[in-house]
Amino acid sequence: MAACCVLRLNSFLLRTTSSAAIGRRMMMSSSTSSSTNNPSGPTLLQRIQALDKSSLAPSYTALVLFHPSPSSQYAVVGHVQNSLIKSTLINCKNDQGEPIFVLEEKLSNQLGTVRDILRLNVDVQYERNNTNDDAYEPAELFQRRTESFAQVTKKVISRQHSDIYPVYPFVERMDPVNDNNVILAHVNRSTAPYLGIDSVGVHLNCYVRQNNVIQGVWLAKRASTKSHHPNYWDTTVAGGQPHNLSLYDNIVKEAHEEAGVPSEWLRNDASNKAFSDHTHDPLTMTTAKEDGSCMKRSFYYSFDLQVPDEWQPTPVDGEVQEFKLYSIEELDRELRFGQSLRPAMRAVLLDFMIRHGLFKEIEGEDDCSELSKAMRRERIRLW
């Protein structure tokens, strides 16, 4: 059965030492950039809006868990593509030969919306055997759900990731991490996108300032071995958010592992003026792969760090091929016309430029308020 499920899924699917040196480094990187000035193409706002894939919603079904609360008996935790449900998930069984998922048809939520929903069989069985709300044991269900998701990873996904992601209930508020939401289960990072589980990423923007003006930002070229967007450019540091670390602890870890950033530079106190935490204002968009699969809610949390002129990030863990210092002018061209950045990084880096007053609007084309709104979308509701 495992081989069958995997088959179905596969078929479905410079160092610098002075101001002059910084200037020379930026001129070199600008001359080798793939950015081109193409005024006939989409505007920057259109490029940012294109990152949001909410229009795919009709081809997805809500993944719902049993979670009694004052407002509802259930919580939506993901979105699963209908074709993946029919071709793979509905046919997969656990080691005891029992179905892992159950598709329940034409159910109404508390708002009166009637749609099919996908549920874990352990939830259905638990609800059936425990009709008294007072008997609800969230810890017991947490373990059963986590085991069920682990079975999906084992039988459907061809490879496992070392990171484990939390499964949060979808809520009207936009911030799953800072709002201390309840965690209903754990799921392997490799499996989470296929179930539409919320994706949380942390980002560190290392920048160089001279004469009180930001001159450039260090970007990282993703390794050619990365499973997603190999050879594209990222923020200086970018990583997924595991269940067992805070956003701050995670960025300290990732910064050391990916770029060799000393942990003392990221000291989070009032005396450290070079480091700033912007995780109170995450970017939020509904994203998906280019083929329309893996639609999920993506959250991007950012930190900024002013680094010394003479410092250069160093690849440590093999996640990055190289680093390059982009001038602000080069970064602006890349955001507007280039194809070198991992697509979502257009939003993260544009937000950095707006935050530091570096973004210069083109009259009649750019509007910072509209750009900011396009990077902070409301959550879609399937059920």
Structural overview:
- The chain is α+β, with helices and mostly antiparallel strands and 383 residues long.
- The protein is built from ten helices and 14 strands.
- The strands form three sheets. Strands 7, 8, 9, 10, 11, 12, 13 and 14 form an eight-stranded mixed beta sheet that branches.
- β12 and β13 form a beta hairpin.
- α8 crosses α9.
- The chain is globular.
- About 5% of the residues have low confidence.
Short description:
The chain has 383 residues and is an alpha+beta fold.
Key features?
383 residues, four-stranded mixed beta sheet, eight-stranded mixed beta sheet, single chain, 14 strands
Total beta strand runs: 14
What would the principal axes of the Cα set say about the shape? Answer: globular
Order of helices and strands: HHHEEHEEHHEEEEEEHEEEEHHH
Work out the helix count.
10
**Main sheet overview:** 8 strands, mixed
Spans of at least 5 consecutive residues whose pLDDT stays below 50 are 14-21, 27-36
User: What helical percentage do the residues reach?
Assistant: 25-40%
Tell me the span between the first and last alpha carbons.
Answer: 31 Å
Give the radius of gyration: 22 Å
